[in-house]
């Protein structure tokens, strides 16, 4: 017999979500997540992936993955600390450290896992964490897991950060204090104010932690937001993902040798969850090599992003204040935003709507993620659809 209490809980809550229009149905792709995707037999220009550089379908990465499967098989067979560490994992970690200009790096199964792993490996109930209010869900969960006191500061508000840091210090209650932020905020595409954050942290003795999931491969000629600001040797934790611009799956922490040494003996997803598969690791190594050799894909990404942004602005859309390829098209009203996104879909453009509670009420937007793999023709087609639907809705 299944639990009656559980069944009641599930039905009540599912119905509530469905009633509020907040229940998300997932539409599977019939093929690769490239610049063009197929859903239900319908071919769409894809403006919703994090595959910034088009590497998810790059033939060089595919070859590397296939070769690794031939040599090592499909699974790692164990956690890293038993015998699930291959020479490939170490090669990846060396390449990541080089790429990030740090002493060392450690790879995890996902970016999400990095935040589960790294925060609680160093912070505990005697510590405090200053966290930007718009930080990613995995940072929020990682902070909770650590049992440290979490103090949120207003988004990118340096006065608030400083005041709350000073307050935490003068309370005398905490052994260590960390400031933690996304490098790029994924809903608006704005950058963390890292130079100021680092100055405050150095002045007040805070640990610095930057999760640059959306910055790696995108900013700083590909090396990320920290490199973009020239702060590679002044940030304690640099988190990155292998799942966005790198095009595969996985995550990493880059930093000083002692930090990485500690994470290898104390971070729980490293100790208790099977390591990245050989194919993932080999493909990621290939991606990092490519990014180290050439900035061509990065340039193409920015060219496409600039072109899309200029086009949407010229049509009269409000595209917010993004500093990255992430291009929100702010519609406002939640229902209107969802209807707008649906019409784009009908006209052949896949761009997801993002509404309250993910973003503040009244700032519903359709979020566009151009990639290096889009052609100018695809972007032009998307812009033509935006023009048509925008006029239809009386938005432009
Ligand atoms: C996407 C994202 C993650 C999760 O990375 P995955 O590799 O997909 O698990 C973590 N942090 C931030 C800031 C992200 O944007």
UniProtKB/TrEMBL annotation:
It is an enzyme of class 2 (transferase). Keywords: Acyltransferase, Pyridoxal phosphate, Transferase. Its cofactor is pyridoxal 5'-phosphate. It comes from the Bacteria. CDD domains: KBL_like (cd06454). Its EC number is 2.3.1.29. The keyword rRNA processing does not apply. Residues 44-384 form the Aminotransferase class I/classII large domain. One of its GO terms (molecular function) is glycine C-acetyltransferase activity. Homodimer. NCBIfam families: gly_Cac_T_rel (TIGR01825), PRK06939.1 (NF005394). Belongs to the class-II pyridoxal-phosphate-dependent aminotransferase family. This is Glycine C-acetyltransferase. It comes from Mesobacillus maritimus. The lineage of its organism: Bacteria, Bacillati, Bacillota, Bacilli, Bacillales.
């Amino acid at each position: 017999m299944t639990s009656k209490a559980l069944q009641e809980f599930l039905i009540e809550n599912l119905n509530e979500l469905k009633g509020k229009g907040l229940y998300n149905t997932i539409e599977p792709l019939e093929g690769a997540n490239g610049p063009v995707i197929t859903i239900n037999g319908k071919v769409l220009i894809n403006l919703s992936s994090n595959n910034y550089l088009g590497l998810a379908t790059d033939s060089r990465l595919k070859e590397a993955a296939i070769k690794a499967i031939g040599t090592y098989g499909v699974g790692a067979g164990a956690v890293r600390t038993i015998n699930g560490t291959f020479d490939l994992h170490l090669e990846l970690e060396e390449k990541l450290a080089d790429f990030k200009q740090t002493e060392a790096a450690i790879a995890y199964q996902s970016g999400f896992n990095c935040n589960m792993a790294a925060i609680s490996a160093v912070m505990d109930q005697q510590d405090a964490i200053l966290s930007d209010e718009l930080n990613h869900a995995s940072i929020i969960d990682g902070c909770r897991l650590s049992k440290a006191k979490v103090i949120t500061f207003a988004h990118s508000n340096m006065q608030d950060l400083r005041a709350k840091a000073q307050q935490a210090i003068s309370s005398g209650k905490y052994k260590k204090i960390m400031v933690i932020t996304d490098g790029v905020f994924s809903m608006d595409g704005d950058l963390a104010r890292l130079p100021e954050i680092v100055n405050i942290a150095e002045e007040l003795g805070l640990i610095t932690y930057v999760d640059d999931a959306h910055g790696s491969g995108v900013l700083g000629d590909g090396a990320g937001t920290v490199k973009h600001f020239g702060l590679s040797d002044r940030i304690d934790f640099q988190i990155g993902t292998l799942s966005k611009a790198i095009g595969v799956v996985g995550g990493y922490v880059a930093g000083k040798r002692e930090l990485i040494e500690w994470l290898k003996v104390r971070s729980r997803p490293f100790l208790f969850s099977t390591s990245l598969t050989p194919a993932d690791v080999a493909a990621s190594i290939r991606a990092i090599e490519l990014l180290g050799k050439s900035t061509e894909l990065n340039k193409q990404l920015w060219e496409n992003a600039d072109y899309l942004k200029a086009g949407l602005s010229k049509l009269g859309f409000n595209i917010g204040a993004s500093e990255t390829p992430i291009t929100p098209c702010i519609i406002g009203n939640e229902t209107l935003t969802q209807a707008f996104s649906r019409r784009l879909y009908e006209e052949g453009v896949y761009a997801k709507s993002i509404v309250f509670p993910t973003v503040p009420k009244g700032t519903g937007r359709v979020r566009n993620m151009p990639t290096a793999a889009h052609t100018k023709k695809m972007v032009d087609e998307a812009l033509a659809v935006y023009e048509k639907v925008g006029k239809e809705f009386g938005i432009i």
